[in-house]
Amino acid sequence: MQIDKISAQSGFNSFQSAQTAAEDHTFSDQLKKTQAQVATSMKDDKKLRNTCKDFEAMYLNLMYSKMRETVPDNPLFGSSNGEKIMQSMLDTELTKQMANAGGVGLADMMYKQLSHLNK
């Protein structure tokens, strides 16, 4: 039976391969954590942007309803409760679409201001 001699080089190679494997594992763990943080940050940014758009839509809806109050009712046909409800629902949807299309810029300004606080 022949026993091969153990060299310092083979021990060093084993140490290097173990160290590389550990670094790769640590790197992959760190990469996964970073990816998770970026994903969470992107979700938070999307939530913040949507909230700002919703706020702008609410603001525009309030402005629209106050503007409508200044217009006198049609004396010829009058205005029923159903018509008022439908007009209110139409205004709500219209202002949501306006806010999603860019609105008056309120959502963008709020997002810029609040996103700095979030970081």
**Largest sheet composition:** none
Note poorly predicted spans.
none
Question: What structural class should be given to the helix and strand makeup?
Answer: mainly alpha
In round numbers, the mean pLDDT is 80
What does the oligomeric state look like here? single chain
Gyration radius (Cα, Å) is: 32 Å
| H/E topology pattern | HHH
Number of helical segments?
3
**Alpha-carbon distance between the two ends:** 67 Å
Task: Work out the helicity level.
Answer: over 70%
Word description of this protein:
The chain is mostly helical and 119 residues long. It has a domain at 43-119. It has helices at residues 8-69, 81-100, 106-118. Helix 1 runs antiparallel to helix 3 (106-118). 8% of the residues are buried.
